Amino acid sequence: MKALWLACPVFVILFVAVSSGQQAARIDDAALTRAGRTGDDWLTYGINQAETRFSPLTEINASNVSRLSLAWSYDVGSGGGGQEATPLVSNGTIYGITNWSVVFAVDARTGKEKWRWDPQVNQATVRPEICCGVVNRGIALYSGMVFAPVIDGRLHALDANTGRPMWEARVAYPQDHFTITMAPRIARGKVIIGVSGGDRTTRGFFDAYDAATGRRAWRFYTVPGDPSKGFENEAMRKAAATWDIDKEWWKYGGGGAVWDGMAFDPEAGLVYVGTGNAQPWTFHHRSSKDKDNLYAASILAVDVDTGQLRWYYQVVPGDNWDFDSVQHLILADLPIGGRTRKVIMQANKNAFFYVIDRLTGEFISAQPFSYVTWAKGIDQKTGRPIVNEEAFYGTEAILIQPGGGGAHNWSPMAYNPTTGLVYIPTSTNNSFSYAAEPKYEPQPGRMTGTVRPAPTPVRPPPPAIGPKPIEGPGGRGALVAWDPVTQQMRWRNPGGGGIGGGAMTTAGNLVFQVLGDGRLLAYSADKGAKLLEIQTGLSSGMGPPITYRVDGKQYVALMGGVGTVTLGNAGPGNSATPFLPKLLVFGIDAAGSTSGQP
Length: 598
Hints:
Number of helices: 4
Structural class: mainly beta
CATH superfamily: Quinoprotein alcohol dehydrogenase-like superfamily
CATH architecture: 8 Propeller
Mean pLDDT: 90
Radius of gyration: 23 Å
Strand order of the largest sheet: 1-31-32-33-34
Number of strands: 37
Low-confidence stretches: 1-24, 593-598
CATH topology: Methanol Dehydrogenase, Chain A
Distance between the termini: 48 Å
Strand content: 25-35%
């Protein structure tokens, strides 16, 4: 007994040490603020709250990346759409989500499944309400929970150790033409999430939910509603003056969906989001030509505590071309004009790269990174586009570049502070033939206000500016290395595009790119020399790459494959060949294996 009692303090010490270790690994606000500094984990969509997708890891570098090979794979389950999600890594576990919102956790060393949770979406009912494909871009981790957006409009909190549901919140309903396809973000104990619904009769918004309880803290609408019902706040009152009341825009929803780009500055307390295009596409059916239609096609900064608008920058006032401004947002501190500026950066769908002061919303600069015909440029004093008059199309068709698919869409870009470059998955030769319908009559699956299929252009296109498309095979897409300070292209390699795959960069002088055709590529981050090309064999529905370290070894991971598509509406990555969806993990001189079958 005496020996036992003497051993008790040791037991207590060990228990406290283990408990403390577990508590230290728990993801809280401080951990998210530090996220990405060691490179061991990938805790949030963009690795950190600045969304840089830059890892400080150097074990895989320009000298040895050619030896990268498959370490293991995990079958993520039935498909039916592209795997666009960014997996997250914490404390030796990879967390992921499939296109139909099935969440899984696997061992980051071996791929052995730890748990799996299926929200059991009514696919037959929900699929027709999905705007642009059966996809899901990711999850969030915080306070021992996994926050999973479900495509049918639910937000779930799951126990990170077991997958057991902790709470459920109803963000929106598919019956109202809303779905959720974006990855949530965490900001000061709140789960921030937006809704998809572009090209439907929807009014865009994004919400903040208490991470502990699931109660909604606030909601911010991105466009004004029916003026006769009053306005939610002064921002909506101001916005209503920029729409044409005679055309009763609210009957068509107004648009402004929040379905991708988001970032958080914990020091400033600001949540940044990009908003979608106004609805219908063409101003003829929603407003006057001289109306800006706030806050569609904009970047918004909202106070994380109150949900009130602090500033906005409208990228495309009175958007007429489906130029959503929801693309990836990156925060950085850049030397501009002899001083350090806290900026937010975006490679927009409209083919211009924007640098904005993230504290005030002041426009700093913008230049084209791809071919442009809709505008002559951006006024460097006001930040407003100088639109070609011919681009304001009527019922006669005209070919415009880029088209609605954009020069850059949802594929994540990456920023490397060592090289000072942003790496942009780009569509270099993207166009669309626009023509306004004589009369707008909303119909399911055809809610844009433009003629479909696109008619043969009868008006000559406007003159073009910006980097010309790459000639030859693969030239319709490219990875563009862009200097945000000088607003110049440093290098460009063919392959990929603005939709599908994405980029990630590291301190090992590497930038990784995943292409929609299934290839994993690695380039030197400074010069763009190709160092690696792996055909994963998935060849469809590819998600962006990440990197992490476990047991002192660095790995690269990605998801891809669409599975067998039924009932249509699979979206980007649709393929007649059922490439079974997988999570793939690569390491240096790895011994290939397959494990963790569900």
